[in-house]
Amino acid sequence: MQTFSVIELRVGTALPFGPRGQPSAIDKQPLAGPAMAGTTGIEGDAQGDPRHHGGPDKAIHAYAAAHYPLWRREFPEVADRFRPGGFGENLVVAGVTEAEVCLGDRFRLGGALLELSQGRQPCWKLNLRFGRPDMARLVQETGRSGWYFRVLEPGPVAAGQEARLAARPNPGWSLARVSRLLYHDRMNRADLLAFAALPGLTPSWRRLADARLASGRTEDWSSRVDTPA
Predict the structure, then answer these.
(1) Does residue 37 sit within a domain?
(2) How far apart are CA 69 and CA 50, in angstroms?
(3) CA 143 – CA 4 distance, rounded (Å)
(4) Do 151 and 213 fall into the same domain?
(5) Whether 159 and 197 share a structural domain
(6) Letter string b/e over residues 141-179, b meaning 16 or more CB atoms within 10 A of that residue's CB
(7) 100 and 206, same domain (yes or no)
(8) Are 178 and 28 in contact (CB under 8 A)?
(9) Taking the CA of residue 63 as centre, how many other CA atoms within 13 Å lie in the half-sphere pointing to its CB?
(10) Domain that holds residue 193
């Protein structure tokens, strides 16, 4: 049975961020003890932009600790910025990456039951966070995006706990495969049809797949990944 461990549990407060001072809670701090995981997120965690972040389908953001050494080697000039919490994650996890988890996976963590809802679609705030104008695009292209969990059964969670796989309804749909479809093999019609038909797929991703199939075009990502002037 697949497991992963939670190295850190983090929450953040919404503060002004970026050239226009938009509120953001990307700077999340570690918690020493347990916190309640509810259907809209970790107790004490805020979202600066609730239109694009948070909510039931993006309640908890996880990021693989294995990615940090890769980023540091690739960008040594800002290596100190690539550390746990750098991507605004709630869970810093070990023992798993996007290649080993699938859409719809259910994990029992502490007293909560979590369901993997979607991968993160990176935004321009990462460009400022890491001092690189192309950081959001790099995260998207590499697939080192992290992912979101829904909370199916609320309960306390804490750093140091082990998450155990309880169900895998879509074993053929790892997040690595999803990333290839969304950002590389973008007009693979057979895969888009299969992707759109997955049970439990978030409505935004189903609309994305349906729009590509209908238009034969990929959506414009510039407003999401390019830093506002």
Answers:
(1) yes
(2) 31
(3) 19
(4) no
(5) no
(6) eebbbbbbbbbeebbebbbebebebeebebeebbbbbbb
(7) no
(8) no
(9) 25
(10) 185-218
Distance CA 179, CA 141 (A): 8
pLDDT in tens, 199-217: 999 999 999 999 999 999 9
102, two tokens: 């699938």
Instruction: Verify that 190 and 99 share a domain, yes or no.
Output: no
Same domain, 149 and 201: no
Query: What residues pair up with 9 in beta bridges, in sequence order?
Result: 91
SS3 (DSSP) at 103:
coil
The total of structural domains in the chain comes to 2
pLDDT digits (tens, 9 = 90+) for 110-131: 999 999 999 999 999 999 999 9
The predicted model scores a pTM of 0.95
Two tokens at 198? 């997955």
The predicted-structure confidence for 163-180, as pLDDT tens digits, reads as follows: 999 999 999 999 999 999
| b (16+ CB within 10 A) / e for 36-52 | bbbebbbeebbbbeeee
Which token pair is 37? 């995981």
